[in-house]
Design goal:
single chain, mainly alpha, 12 helices, Tet_transcr_reg_TetR-rel_C_sf, transcription regulation, DNA-binding transcription factor activity, DNA-binding, transcription
């Protein structure tokens, strides 16, 4: 006779594996929390694997089971705090048709940068020092742009859609730099209302463009 235990091997056999996966994810989350705390208290250069591991209550060996380097851990944290998963840029897709909605969206964006200022200073430093972090940030922008299918779908051909994607890339990178200068590092202090008015008007004009690809200028040689 087949016992009840042998009749249902699946769930029992899978449980240890699922527990290990859960524990591994919990450890990874602790490490990422520690990375964030260490960066907010010091900076990227001063942060060490020993300091991060100690803050997380783990060992260096455990750290390296999850991340190959400090840079990779910081890059993972960058992905973790990027607001795309909360629909931030998806909301931009719906705001494009209205300067007023664009302005409100930009104000929310600046507030997000303000609330993460200490961390973003360290992440900006990390991107300037380590290519791994810089490449991950650039990839994050690509993903953010991809969360706007409404705008990207306006182009009637591939060239028009490529132009639309390029516009978004330029504007998102511009916004990041403006936010870093004005509310994170505070190296530029323009009137905030005027800044929002001008940016919203410029974004609206740019994003409401026809979507036609720009004409290419070709060198011509006359005989």
């Amino acid at each position: 006779m087949t016992s009840a235990a042998s009749a249902e091997p699946g769930p029992r056999a899978d449980r240890p594996a699922s527990l290990r996966a859960e524990y591994r994810e919990q450890t990874r989350r602790r490490l990422l929390t520690a990375v964030r705390e260490v960066l907010e208290e010091s900076d990227y250069t001063a942060a060490t694997v020993d300091g991060i591991s100690g803050r997380a209550g783990t060992s260096r060996a455990t750290f390296y089971l999850h991340f190959r380097s400090k840079a990779e851990a910081v890059a993972a944290l960058l992905e973790d705090v990027t607001p795309s998963d909360r629909g931030w840029y998806a909301a931009l897709d719906a705001a494009i048709g209205s300067p007023e909605r664009l302005r409100r969206w930009m104000d929310d964006a600046l507030r997000w940068y303000e609330s993460h200022a200490r961390l973003l200073v360290a992440l900006n430093e990390a991107g300037a020092i380590d290519r791994t972090v810089a490449e991950r940030r650039s990839a994050a922008i690509e993903r953010l742009v991809s969360t706007m299918p409404g705008y990207l779908g306006r182009g009637h051909n591939e060239a028009a859609r490529a132009s639309a994607r390029m516009r978004l890339q330029l504007l998102v990178r511009q916004l990041h730099q403006v936010a870093m200068d004005t509310v994170v590092q505070c190296t530029w202090q323009p009137d905030r209302d005027l800044l929002l008015d001008v940016m919203a008007a410029d974004w609206h004009a740019t994003l409401e463009a026809s979507g036609e690809p720009p004409a290419r200028t070709e060198d011509r040689t006359e005989d």
